[in-house]
Design brief:
Elements (H helix, E strand, L loop, with lengths): L10 H4 L7 E2 L2 E2 L3 H5 L11 E2 L2 E4 L10 H10 L5 E4 L5 H6 L2 H13 L8 E6 L1 H12 L5 E7 L12 H4 L7 H12 L20 H7 L3 H4 L8 H8 L3 E7 L15 E2 L7 E2 L5 H4 L5 H6 L3 E6 L12 H8 L6 E2 L1
Parallel strand pairs: 4-5, 4-6, 6-7, 7-8, 8-11
Antiparallel strand pairs: 1-2, 3-12, 9-10
């Protein structure tokens, strides 16, 4: 099921005459206009809602520099904050992910240009930080959350190693990682960021006991955090994109909250059949019922989203979600 763009902002349209499409100081660029690459302009009394970018694992803010240029070209005068946590690439691997979330929140709150809220575009691991920010902080609030191949349901594999040696060729990688996690009671989560969203479907009960990040932001534990559900459900739109050519995220559709069935590393349970969705643990069902949860797929490689080869994901799915203003 792919939800339509039924709840997109119409603030620009409402401020312009339906007959002339142009009113004092306002140039209306509707969805089709943006899709054709027509630059948008906001009225003097309004400004485009700022945009925050968050890079992924094994990357730094520089990896999102093209995305920043795309946004600025489409929305002249827009404020874009391309966040880097710590020293970028190195800390994306080795800074504990909870600390990365806290540093992301600090960077957002330190920017006065974001005080009225912002749209958030995240790539890969950046989407885990972004969604955790929405759940735990969300002040200032995220309006539209856009995630490109972010493993929301977790990964059963080792990021980057999967691209070099896929699970079917190197099944021992999962076994080794599982042993390390269980043997150290999840101690790796304090040293390797992706260990915090690595998820073991075969030994799922044991994994629930030692994981401290994904179990929290996905409300997987018996005691649910109502604030997380409220914050996620408050999003205007949540766009989730996955790629059919992902060699890093396992399963490929984890960015749609799909994951392996408990006890299996082959059968994938789609989002709407998971307990998290049917129980509405983090508000996804609320968003979906309102037409505000959007799932899209592409055929990029995992790393290519912020690059020219994959710009169509921005052009076709992302750009329209930035076409909204604040007073």
């Amino acid at each position: 099921k792919t939800a339509p763009y039924s709840s997109l902002d119409t603030s620009l349209a409402e401020s312009c005459s339906a007959n002339t499409m142009i009113n004092a100081g306002c140039t209306l660029v509707l969805w089709f206009g943006v899709g054709l690459g027509v630059a948008a302009t906001a009225s003097a009394a309004e400004q485009y809602r700022p945009v925050v970018l968050m890079h992924g694992l094994d990357a730094s803010a520089s990896s999102m520099s093209r995305v920043k240029q795309w946004v600025e070209a489409d929305y002249p005068g827009i404020h874009v904050n391309n966040v880097e946590v710590g020293n970028g690439k190195l800390d994306s691997w080795f800074m504990p992910i909870d600390k990365q979330v806290d540093e992301f929140a600090a960077a957002v709150r330190a920017d006065p240009g974001l005080s009225q809220g912002f749209n958030l575009i995240c790539h890969s691991q950046g989407g885990m930080l972004g969604r955790a920010y929405v759940s735990r902080y969300n002040t200032p609030p995220v309006h539209n959350l856009i995630t490109w191949s972010s493993p929301h349901a977790g990964v059963y594999g080792v990021p980057d190693f999967n691209a070099i040696c896929p699970d079917q060729d190197c099944p021992w990688l999962n076994d080794l990682f599982s042993e390390l996690l269980e043997g150290g009671a999840g101690a790796l989560q304090d040293h390797i960021a992706f260990a915090s969203y690595w998820r073991d479907p075969v030994n799922h009960t044991a994994w629930l006991k030692y994981n401290t990040f994904l179990t929290d932001i996905n409300n997987l534990l018996p005691e649910k955090n109502a604030t997380y559900k409220t914050n996620v459900a408050s999003l205007n739109t949540f766009l989730m994109v996955y790629t059919t050519h992902d060699g890093i995220v396992v399963p490929k559709t984890s960015p749609w909250f799909d994951f392996f069935a408990d006890g299996s590393d082959k059968i994938v349970t789609p989002l709407r059949e998971t307990e998290g969705y049917t129980g509405n643990w983090i508000g996804l069902q609320t968003l979906d019922n309102a037409g505000r949860l959007i799932q899209k797929e592409c055929n990029c490689t995992h790393q290519d989203y912020p690059r020219a080869d994959c710009k169509y994901v921005y052009d076709e799915y992302t750009r329209v979600l930035l076409n909204n203003t604040i007073s």
